[in-house]
Design a protein that fits this description.
Helix content: 25-40%
Radius of gyration: 22 Å
Strand order of the largest sheet: 10-9-8-5-4-13
Number of helices: 10
Largest sheet: 6 strands, parallel
Number of strands: 21
Distance between the termini: 23 Å
Oligomer: single chain
Length: 435
């Protein structure tokens, strides 16, 4: 579903629309490291493939990605002049932030223009955390970073340099906003970019967990991003979406970094598979990420190439091209294809309609008018639902497989009944649709 014109916040303050006022489901992919590592031919192949699949957003870091495969930028691809070419660990370089290199940003502009030409918006991170003093010192202990004045100059430079391109500005990258002066730092940059922005392009942040606790009331923040991430406690992390949804006044919520496919699970020697990705995607949307969802895959976000390695890692036999074949991406495309046949943008989280108790966390969403009810079951189990006010008489009820798209009809209920009882017929996850 290509996006026409600049992305806008819809009148309901919960979802997105395009420049023509048509609802948009953000289906993003994550390629943070491409500006520093990808060749032009690789970029074209990647964009063409994702566009053909149905993705409409790509998330990029405007600067070299510190935890990409090594080297984090190809020879001569410098966003700023290098004071010296050596790096203590291959991540942090001594940049002269006052000496912006036009060649690098000319190339970035060309990359974005190509993706825009395929109907894809670029969500562009302005400052990953290592460029901000005192930010996440537990991750990278020494990184002097920019001054606030340099950061403002850089952010407004991007607004001017990238002109009318179809972009969503993401002020921060992977930050907690907890270090001394860090939250105020991004706030200054966000305000300056909002003031400089001539086309009304949306502005947000990419947090470690959620943005709303720090910036929900900031005038420059158009929507809240969540990162449910790659930890073991997925149910807790996905609950962050509902916390953002509940904030007032309402702002749209987007889970822009759920668990990535084949990404290592933090604290366990396992990797997320397509089921984990699918589960995070469906639960995100029904818990309040009505704007859409972003997919990510290991080897793509860090732009792996065969024989190269991440910092302190071993050379990989796989590349980003191999990761393009992972099945989780198709599962999220299938999700978007289903939802865009329904009024998904009018859904509201409706956990109060769940009357049964299960061993897994079930997500429920319903339109205010009761014309559509969706229930996602991560596992096969029986559920009891309050369907009062849904006028179930004459409505259809369907079990739908998020893995295959298979549909199996069931009974929605009968006149005078306020309860639906049923069990998913699928061995893995299932979606109940009452419409």
């Amino acid at each position: 579903m290509a996006i026409k014109g600049y992305l806008q916040v819809a009148a309901n303050q919960r979802s997105f629309q395009d420049g023509e006022g048509k609802p948009v489901f953000w289906l993003g992919d994550t390629a943070w490291a491409c500006p520093g590592r990808a060749t032009w031919e690789e970029w074209v192949d990647y964009v063409d493939a994702r566009s053909a699949q149905g993705f409409n957003v790509i998330q990029l870091n405007s600067l070299p990605q510190h935890d990409a495969y090594q080297p984090i930028f190809r020879e001569g691809r410098h966003p700023f002049a290098l004071i010296n070419k050596e790096s203590a660990d291959g991540r942090i370089f001594n940049w002269d932030y006052d000496a912006i290199q036009d060649d690098y940003f000319d190339r970035l502009k060309k990359m974005i223009a190509y993706a825009n030409g395929k109907g894809m918006v670029i969500a562009l991170v302005v400052l990953w955390f290592e460029h901000v003093p005192n930010s996440r010192l537990d991750v990278i202990p020494v990184h002097p970073g920019m001054t606030v004045q340099q950061a403002i100059r850089y952010g407004t430079f991007l607004v001017e340099k990238l002109e009318e391109l179809n972009i969503v500005w993401v002020v921060s990258g992977d930050d907690e906003f907890k270090g001394e002066g860090v939250a105020a730092f991004y706030n200054e940059v966000g305000m300056a970019m909002k003031e400089a922005e001539p086309y009304g392009r949306l502005i947000t942040t990419h947090p470690v967990h959620k943005s709303g606790d720090t910036y929900h009331h900031a005038s420059w923040l158009d929507f809240n991003m969540v990162q449910s991430g790659h930890g073991l406690n997925q149910d807790y992390n996905l609950g962050l979406i509902r916390e953002e949804w509940d904030k007032q006044p309402p702002k749209p919520v987007l889970n822009a970094e759920p668990c990535y496919e084949h990404h290592p699970m933090i604290g366990r020697e396992r990797r997320f598979d397509r089921y984990g990705v699918r589960r995070a995607g469906w639960r995100s949307v029904l818990e309040g990420s009505l704007t859409g969802i972003t997919y990510g895959a290991y080897w793509i976000w860090n732009w792996a190439k065969s024989g190269e390695a991440p910092l302190n890692g071993t050379p990989s036999p796989y590349s980003w091209r191999d990761a393009m074949e992972l099945p989780g991406a198709s599962d999220l495309v299938r999700m978007m294809q289903l939802l865009t046949t329904l009024p998904w943008f009018d859904l509201r989280p409706a956990s109060e309609r769940l009357r049964s108790t299960q061993s897994c966390t079930v997500s429920v969403a319903c339109t205010e008018a009761g014309s559509l009810l969706l229930v996602y079951l991560p596992e096969k189990c029986e559920i009891r639902l309050d369907v009062s006010g849904l006028a179930v008489e004459g409505k259809s009820a369907v079990w739908w497989s998020p893995e295959s798209g298979e549909r199996i009809a069931t009974t929605a209920g009968h006149q005078g009944s306020n309860e639906f009882t049923g069990s998913s017929p699928f061995d893995k996850d299932g979606l109940l649709i009452i419409s």
